[in-house]
Design brief:
The chain is mostly helical. Helices cover 65% and strands 0% of the residues. The relative contact order is 0.06.
Length: 281
Amino acid sequence: MPETSRLAAPAPGEAPLTPAEVAEMKEHLAFLRRYKEVLRLKLNAAEDLLVNQQREPTDRGVCRHLLGKVDRAVVERAIERDPLRGDAAARARMLAGAVRLTADVGVLLAYLEALAHVRSRAEAAQAFAEVVRRIDFESVSATRLARLLQVLIDTFVDHERVQVLFSLLASGAFRRAFDAALPAFPPTVAEVCAPLRAVHRRLLEDGGGAEAPELLAKGMAQVLSAPDPVLRSYEEPLRAGMLELALGADVPSEVADRGVGVLLPSLPRDGRAYARFAIRR
């Protein structure tokens, strides 16, 4: 995942670019030269000379002003037009350069969405983790959070999806953002994520909550889709809590059987939890 350039960020003073920064700026200028028509950038005379290699990049303020023209509005309009609109690979290539020039969450999400269609799951997963690191969940909008979760759904499958969402829910800021945005989630996101949120709240958050039984049942079906070794690797209290939910009255029999078959044998046979669950089988 490309890092956002410090050349695009406000900085104290206007010292000339260092040799290393000049070399980096030339990379950005090559990007602008390649995509200036796609981005429909409006350049002044000094900027045009820079982009067309007629002037060396030395003035920090001029360079910062030029890079600042690649903002969310410019990028979003570009990917909504041909030739990028219908070509995910081309979008990903352009956005790989754009995310070096802006830290805007919308641009980062657009890059993730493109990667999900053209790169391996491993590469997309790595980029997902990096984007999550850059997002301030205290201020993220419901729309952008829904887009992030849709990328999660598209990038990760089965138990990986559960583990990634649970790792996000370990953050209080993410939980608050999720709960505030949940009513606005599109059905494709809510159907996957709301049940897992209910399970996480019941199992891992102090006090739990009065969750709808059908949500817990759907969430447990996703959790128990993990391979046996993954389920058995959880801490004993968590395994016991999962088994408790799996044996709930509203849980389908196949989900309950899955929970009992994998989790009950993983508990100490001489323990109180094993005896309690064995009686309920």
